[in-house]
Amino acid sequence: MASGPLRRIVDELPDALRGIIERETPIPSIAQGAAAKVIECPGLVRADIGQISGLDASLEVLYGSPVGLDRARELVAESWNLTFGLPGRDGFGDGLKKANIAITTGAAEALANALRATASGHVVAIPSAHWENYLNGVEAAGGTAVSVEFFDERGDLDVDGLRTALDSAGAKVLLVNFPANPTGAVLSPDEAKALADLAIERDLIVVADEVYSRLRFDGVPPQSLLTYAPEHVISISSASKEYLIPGARVGYAISALPEVTDRVIRKLVRTSSGSPNVLGQERLIAMLEQDLADLRQGRAPTIFTRVLEEMKRRKQKLMKVLTKHDFHSRGRAGHGPEGTIFLMVGVPAWFDGGDDAFARATLEAGCVSCVPGSAFGMPNAVRFSYGGMTEEAIARLDDNLTRFRREQSQ
């Protein structure tokens, strides 16, 4: 595998973080060794566990590893291998293993720790239309966020323009999110490859927020930037959207280099949550085992396919209602929303006011709760989430908008 910026990640950490990574911490290593030794020696007395146990096994949930249960990590690795065809590709050998996976407390912790490891003292380029927490994550990690455009006025991926913007800003890290929240924009395989090639050319670290990588509705197979640039990309994903368990708080950071996940992020998780949600992981394990039974036979995964088909139906129905009421899609020019559970539309001409005023007025009127586009760097637009919109709710939205428009014209 050729040299890339992820191989330098420990050397380039701020001194304080490097100390955390390099410092030996006996508590987790003793716990890990004891968990293995008790299988060999059932009479071993565990005096290392910093939790109350032995009172009622039906109630007790013990701590897990800082980077997740072994079984959860193994299943996430296998799921990614089969979904993205990683075994045999350059940089992956026979595929991801558990050491390539760090389970975290939701994708938010995975993203925060990936940025802590890469952004300090650096300029981080983020999409002009972005999840508002990106700014918080970059700044909390000691980086400086700059906004860049990925597409030109025609809606084409503007590699030359992006290269110029990155060079002008002196960006060392690129934060990428496709399929995109808030717009639902997706990349074609050729575009994803071109973006990865740019990262290689400019020796960038890419933090790829890919929590919606499989939630795309254009018939194109899911893809990950990790596939095209394994020495440059840390991928962030989660069980929240694909498996309907955001409250379980199970996310993951994925890297082709175990040094990143099994050492750097492992140590950083120890300084924040300590270990991810064990109950959430157990729930995910059950669902992954069911879907992997399909994937191993070359079939579409049952649970996820149901989610995908339902979100596609909801998106189509919602767009029909919004178009009826003169909302127009915003985001990638010439492209409608083709992924995630979100879409962005411009504030309609019949409303006298901006995006914040629209969101407040529709909420006050009991019409709809939507989010101002300004929160995502897109003024004069609003974001709708159809993740929780049943068919009945979408029909009710049609009636509510009819009433709200009538009231606005009076």
Describe the structure.
The chain contains 13 helices and eleven strands. The protein has helices spanning about 15-20, 25-40, 70-85, 105-120, 135-140, 160-170, 190-200, 225-230, 260-270, 280-295, 300-325, 355-365, 390-410, and strands at about 100-105, 125, 145-150, 170-175, 205-210, 235-240, 250-255, 330, 340-345, 370, 380-385. The strands form two sheets. The protein has a seven-stranded mixed sheet with strand order 1-7-6-5-4-2-3, sandwiched between helices. The chain is globular. It starts with 14 loop residues before the first helix and ends with a helix.
Topology, element by element:
Blueprint lengths: L14 H8 L3 H15 L29 H15 L16 E4 L1 H13 L4 E5 L5 H8 L3 E5 L10 H11 L1 E6 L12 H13 L3 E5 L15 H4 L4 E6 L12 E4 L3 H13 L7 H18 L6 H23 L4 E2 L11 E5 L8 H10 L6 E2 L8 E5 L5 H19 L1
Helix pairs in contact: 3-10, 4-9, 11-13
Name a few traits of the molecule:
alpha/beta, single chain, globular
Structure at a glance:
With 410 residues, the chain is an alpha/beta fold. The chain has 13 helices and eleven strands.
> How would you describe the oligomerization state of the chains in this entry?
single chain
What would you call the structural class?
alpha/beta
Which percent range fits the helix content? 40-55%
List the total number of helices: 13
What is the general shape? Answer: globular
Give the termini distance in whole angstroms: 67 Å
Low-confidence parts: none
Could you spell the SSE succession in H and E letters?
A: HHHEHEHEHEHEHEEHHHEEHEEH
Radius of gyration: 23 Å
- Mean of all residue-level pLDDT scores: 94
Q: Sheet with the most strands?
A: 7 strands, mixed
- Give the amount of beta strand, in percent: 5-15%
Taking strands numbered 1, 2, ... along the chain, how are they ordered across the largest sheet? 1-7-6-5-4-2-3
Please tally the β strands and state the result. 11
